[in-house]
Design a protein that fits this description.
By secondary structure, the protein is an all-alpha fold. It has one domain. It is 82% helix and 0% strand. The chain has 1 helix and no strands. The mean pLDDT is 77.
Length: 83
C-alpha cells in the first residue's frame, strides 16, 4: 500500500489484510517498547545500587568517626579526670 492509496477503493479482503498488518506492526512496536523499558530498568539498577552502596559507606564511615571520637574522649577522661 502506498500513502496515496484511496482507502475507500480497497476491497474487503484488502482492508482485512491491512488491519492485520497494522495490528502486527503495533504488536511488534509494543514488544520493542517493553524490551527497551526492561533494558533501561536494568541499566539504571546498577547505578542505584552503586549510589546506595556509596551512601551506606558514607554513613558507616561517619558512624565510625563518631564512635572513634567518643572512644577517644572516654579514654582522655580516664587518663585526665576532671579535678
Amino acid at each position: 500500500m502506498t500513502a496515496d492509496t484511496d482507502m475507500t477503493s480497497l476491497r474487503h479482503e484488502e482492508l482485512v489484510a491491512l488491519v492485520r498488518q497494522l495490528r502486527q506492526q503495533l504488536a511488534e512496536r509494543d514488544q520493542e517498547i517493553e524490551r527497551l523499558k526492561r533494558q533501561a530498568a536494568e541499566s539504571h539498577a546498577p547505578v542505584a545500587t552503586a549510589e546506595t552502596m556509596h551512601e551506606t559507606a558514607s554513613a558507616t564511615r561517619q558512624e565510625t568517626l563518631s564512635g572513634s571520637r567518643e572512644d577517644l574522649l572516654a579514654q582522655l577522661e580516664k587518663i585526665y579526670p576532671e579535678t
